[in-house]
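Design a sequence for this backbone.
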């Protein structure tokens, strides 16, 4: 069982998806922080995209 789990965690798919999932998680956390401050996260993210 441990060997199979180790193979799954060492796969190239996990290596590719981990940064994407971390970025999405960060965007969700920041969205909740913006909501707590009374700001609209969609407007903030749109401003980030427009400024890029």
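Sequence:
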């Amino acid at each position: 069982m441990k060997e199979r789990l180790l193979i799954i965690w060492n796969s190239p798919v996990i290596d590719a998806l981990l940064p994407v999932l971390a970025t999405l998680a960060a965007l969700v956390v920041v969205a909740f922080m913006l909501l707590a401050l009374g700001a609209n996260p969609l407007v903030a993210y749109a401003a980030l995209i427009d400024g890029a």
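The mean pLDDT is 88.
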